[in-house]
Amino acid sequence: MAPTSITINLPDDFHFHARDGSKTPAVLKHAAQRFGRCLFMPNLKPPVVNTEMALEYRKHILDSLPSGSDLEPLMTLYLTDKTTQEEIRKAHATGLIVACKYYPAGATTNSDFGVSNVENTYPALEAMAEIGMILCIHSEVTKGDIFEREPVFIEEVMKPLVAKFPKLTIVMEHISTEEAVNYVLGAPDNVKASITCHHLLFNRNHMLVGGIRPHLYCLPILKSENHRIALLKAATSGSPNFFAGTDSAPHAIGDKESCCGCAGVYTAHAAVELYAEAFEGEGALEKLDNFLSK
Q1: Which residues pair with 115 in a beta bridge?
Q2: Is the pLDDT of residue 5 over 90?
Q3: Which of 71, 95, 156, 266 has the fewest CB atoms below 10 angstroms from its CB?
Q4: Is residue 73 scored above 90 in pLDDT?
Q5: What CA–CA distance (Å, rounded) separates 148 from 185?
Q6: Please, are residues 115 and 140 in contact by the beta-carbon 8 Å criterion?
Q7: Are 114 and 102 in contact (CB under 8 A)?
Q8: What is the pLDDT of residues 19-55, one digit of tens each?
């Protein structure tokens, strides 16, 4: 008889969007029920580009949590072409800002202030490697076929970046392709990857066949079934190089259900349950704790 319940450690979400203003409490009520720590993304309007803004955002998050919540916010800086080594060291010294987020300019929601050329970030990355700060990357180029942008990014940006900064911990966030899985498996130990629950459960047919389903539109976009299977195998492999990052991304309904809808899948209300569904489908529930919580 199949088990009707499992026990796991309190999960972490290493890619979470809480937005700002009055939207934050509405989102955090879901996250606080499921996670002990969340890595909060900095792509607000305006983006969180310096230490003061990150600490102010952290205070807003703490003030927005449900009463009695112990959720720990892990903060990030929004990396730009002009981020300085001094800002990196200042942020790291707080003990509260653990990573910088690399958005290729124009790649996704609120990324217009992102990086235009990776070489512009080299001084900041040198400081990050020196002090042990993590680099989180939206791993897509902004040109060419939307279904091929992640593999191109690996060749054009990731491989040279990893070669230049062998001591920098780099997380390819929300990977979506078999090429990314294979790259992480063969990369040095400083390269990791997060995987979303929606990329484990859905492929592009779920989004497009029989009518467009805007609430499954995300970036990186859902890919074909062979890519989903590769992601499932990676997530359930037990490898420490793959872990959970929901990329749960809330938008107003009118911004999703429109003629030009926003990218982002909202899963915070059921993220752990959705990961469990994916792992159960692979007969790998015993691997779920390792993926979510360690």
Answers
A1: 104
A2: no
A3: 95
A4: yes
A5: 19
A6: no
A7: yes
A8: 999 999 999 999 999 999 999 999 999 999 999 999 9
Which of the residues are catalytic?
Answer: 247
Cα distances (Å, whole numbers) of residue 54 to 115, 170, 210, 215: 19, 20, 43, 29
Which residue has 């015993």 as its token pair?
Answer: 286
What pLDDT is attached to residue 106?
A: 80
- The predicted model gives 80-109 an average pLDDT of 94
Task: Calculate helix-pair angle for 225-235, 271-281, nearest 10 degrees.
Answer: 100
Distance of CA 74 to the CA centre of its chain: 13
68: left (phi over 0), alpha (psi -120 to 50) or beta: left
Residue 85 — φ and ψ, nearest 5°?
-60, -35
pLDDT given at position 294: 76
Evaluate whether 137 touches 159 at the Cβ level (below 8 Å). Answer: no
Q: What percent of the chain has pLDDT over 90?
A: 95
**Pairwise CA distance, residues 158 & 149, whole Å:** 12
203 in Cβ contact with 225 (< 8 Å): yes
Q: Which residue has the tokens 């489908």?
A: 281
d(CA 221, CA 82) in angstroms, rounded, equals 29
Tell me the per-residue pLDDT of 236-263, one tens digit each, with 9 for 90 and over.
Answer: 999 999 999 999 999 999 999 999 999 9
Q: How far is residue 196's CA from residue 235's CA, in Å, rounded to a whole number?
A: 10
pTM greater than the 0.85 cutoff:
yes
How far, in Å, are 38, 130, 166 from residue 17 at the CA level? 9, 28, 29
- Out of 58-62, 102-106, 131-135, 226-230, least confident range: 102-106
Strand 12-16 to 37-40 pairing: parallel
